[in-house]
Each structure stands twice: as C-alpha cells, then as structure tokens.
Amino acid sequence: MRLNDLRNAIVASLKANIPELRDVQRHGGRFDEEELRRFSLRAPAARVALMGVSRMDLEDIGKLAGPVQMIIYLIVKTRSGEDDDGLDLAEKIADFCEFNQWGMTEIEAAHVTALQNLYNSQTDREGIHLWAIAFDQAIAFGTNRQEEPPTGDEGLGLDGLSNWPAAIEDENGNVIWSAGQ
Q1: Residue 12 falls inside a structural domain
Q2: What is the per-residue pLDDT for 49?
Q3: CA nearest 130: which of 33, 50, 51, 6?
Q4: How confident is the model at residue 46 (pLDDT cuts 50, 70, 90)?
Q5: Rounded CA separation 46/114 (Å)
Q6: What per-residue confidence (pLDDT) applies to 58?
Q7: pTM for the model
Q8: Alpha-carbon distance 34 to 166, whole Å?
Q9: Residue 147: CB partners within 8 Å, gap ≥ 6?
Q10: DSSP readout, 109-151?
C-alpha cells in the first residue's frame, strides 16, 4: 500500500458517490486565501489532504504502520451567511467517510475524528463556508522486508549453519569457538 494510493482512492470514491460535489481533487495540505478563492470558483468543491501519520510502528512483516490523518476540506458558496447547504453536505461526507475502506481490503476502516466549521470573516467576505472533515485510517505502507515470517534460522540469514565446523581454531590449534559454547 502506498499513501498516494489511499489519497487517490478517497478522491475517486468521493467523485463517484457524492454527486453534489462539482470538483474533487487531491491537495497538499493547508491552503491560503488565494487558493481558497480559486477553489470557491468550482464550489461545492472538496480537497483531500493527507496531513501525516502518527504513532508510527513497524509491523511483523517489516512495513511501516500507523494511523494516517486525512482531511477533506469542503468549500461551499453561501448566500448572506446562510450555511444550511454546507452543513448538510459536510454531514453527508462525514457519514460517508465513517468505516469506509475506499474499495481497499488491506486497510482498516476510517474513523471520523472531527467535523469543523472553519467559517471566519475572510470566508464571509468571499461568500463561502469552509468545513473540515477529519478522519484517521490505519494502514501499513512501505517495503515488505520479508515475504514470509521467519521460521527458525533461515529468517535470520543463517542458511547452511549446519555446514559450519563444530569448532574454530587459531593458528596454534587452540579452540577459540565451538558450537557447544
């Protein structure tokens, strides 16, 4: 599993299942006023951002694992401060995200952690409402450092250990190592 695969699957799933969204794209993270203005031209729009992976661990197979923090930013145009449509759509997206695996079986179900209203005077001046739907999704990613769990010595790279001599002697014939030590 690659992190980009997860983000791309979320984008594709939102496009296919939330028809109210006119525009759904990947996004690098947080954004500034200029980007917000640009995004609002295609509102209602969603931007899917991977914010990071916390509590990293190493799985038994050697892949990195941890909960990925994702945010879907929802941009909705408003009329005179009313946000019923934005709130309804934010709620629909949050509900859609909960327990979703985006068509992938190798990841755990998503769990929504926040539904935040990011409305402020700037968004009011622009005539938009901004929502953030945050969720965590536990995945394993990176290189599988072993195809199968080790069994005995072969997983440690000690194949053929039984062919080693029972003892190793120095140049004077003194035993410096033996299998019985």
Answers
A1: yes
A2: 92
A3: 33
A4: very high
A5: 16
A6: 57
A7: 0.72
A8: 73
A9: none
A10: PPEEEEEEE---HHHHHHTEEEEEEEEEEEEEES--S-SS---
- The total domain count for the chain is 1
Residue type (1 letter), 160: G
- Of the pLDDT bands very low, low, confident and very high (cuts 50, 70, 90), residue 3 is confident
Closest CA to 139 of 56, 72, 73: 56
Three-state SS for 83?
A: coil
Q: In DSSP terms, which residues pair with 65 in a beta bridge?
A: 57, 140
The CATH number of whichever domain residue 21 belongs to comes to 3.30.2000.10
User: Any idea what DSSP says for residue 67?
Assistant: E
Tell me the pLDDT band of 29, cut-offs 50, 70 and 90.
confident
- Angle, nearest 10°, between helix axes 84-97 and 3-17? 130
Nearest to 115 by CA among 104, 125, 129: 129
* pLDDT per position as a tens digit, 6-21: 899 999 999 999 999 9
Please state the rounded mean pLDDT for residues 154-177: 52
**Tokens 């496009």 label which residue?**
15
Eight-class DSSP state of 63: -
Domain, as residue range, for 8: 3-141
